[in-house]
Amino acid sequence: MPLPLPPGLPQIPAIALRGHDRFPEDPMNHEQKPTPESLDSFGTHLFPAQRGSGISRALAALIAAISWFAFVAQTDITIERLLAHGGGVLDGLDRLTMYLTNLTILMSALCFTSLGLSLTTPMSRFFRQPSVISAVVAYLAFVGIAYNLLLRQLWTPTGFRALVNESLHTVVPLLAIVYWIFFVPVFQASLKKSMLWLVYPLGYLSVTLWRGALSGFYPYPFIDVNKLGYGRVLVNSSLLLAGFMALMALLMAVNRSGKPVLLRR
User: Fold this and answer.
1) Are 43 and 130 in contact (CB under 8 A)?
2) Separation CA 239–CA 244 (nearest Å)
3) Which residues contact 100 (CB under 8 A, 6 or more apart)?
4) Which of 20, 169, 185, 228 is 20 to 30 A from 57 in CA distance terms?
5) What is the residue-wise DSSP string for 197-255?
6) To the nearest 10°, the Cα dihedral for 245, 246, 247, 253?
């Protein structure tokens, strides 16, 4: 009930205040929402959200754990092998980083750790973009397919090394594909922007050929310049790049049309 005004004071008409005029917004408490471009050059938001699916987090954590196990184990195996041949720890690390598999499994470990824990560091925010997750899955799938089609028959590891080998080339790629199909949201991607996915494989090839020219060591037989020459290596590399682009196009097509159908089932 309004209080009566003292005599002599004019009556002030009541003013109806709108909801957003009653209490001014405190700019210090206003959380500025980042633009899609600042988070994801292809997609629209970070994934998963802070309250994401428990199943997706669990699967991401599993993939991260297997990836870290495989990377650490492969690091130990490589360094031990180089030490046995008279090399040093740095020689082992140098040899480790010449293999696409090892670099890709490290990328997988970083990406899925960020997803499993929903980390907010700059690197984790980068890896939580749907388009970046899709690129990492494409790299893992390519490594798995290339190994099983081209390299599996070259050696047959046993025991602990067999476990590490299958983790690198089969288990992690398959789990990553399952995660991508069922949990990574559909994102908007143009052909021009998706070409950024080629930076990693092309960069790897260029650096590996340069390092091989200096050291004389090439990690894979189909890019061994000492035995094949640059002409044949360029042909092989072009064929592998074409295969990766076909895989990339498949993922883009599933993302654009087929994936929503799968997720509705």
Assistant:
1) yes
2) 9
3) 143, 201, 204, 208, 219, 220
4) 169
5) GGHHHHHHHHHHHHHHHHHS--SSGGG-HHHHHHHHHHHHHHHHHHHHHHHHHHHHHII
6) 110
Supply the pLDDT for residue 260: 58
Q: Interhelix angle for 100-117 vs 130-146, to 10°? A: 140
The per-residue DSSP string of 1-54 comes to -PPPPPTTPPPPPP-PPPHHHHS---TTT--PPPPHHHH-SSSSS-SS-TT--H
The size of the chain, in residues, is 265
pLDDT tens digits, 172-183 = 999 999 999 989
Instruction: Note the pLDDT of residue 13.
Output: 52
For the stretch 77-98, pLDDT in tens is 999 999 998 989 999 999 999 9
Structure tokens at 38: 């600042």
Rounded Cα distance, 131 and 213, in Å: 34
Residue entry with tokens 């046995």:
84
Distance (Å, rounded) from C-alpha 80 to C-alpha 78?
5
Question: How many angstroms separate the CA atoms of 105 and 175, rounded?
Answer: 13
How far, CA to CA in Å, does 136 sit from each of 58, 86, 90, 159, 258? 18, 35, 27, 28, 19
Chain CA centroid to CA 203, Å: 16
C-alpha to C-alpha distance for 196 and 199, rounded to whole angstroms = 6
Q: What is the DSSP string of 112-162?
A: HHHHHHT--SHHHHHHTSHHHHHHHHHHHHHHHHHIIIIIGGG----HHHH
CA angle, corner 9, sides to 8 and 13, nearest 5? 140
Q: What is the pLDDT of residues 215-230, one digit of tens each?
A: 999 999 999 999 999 9
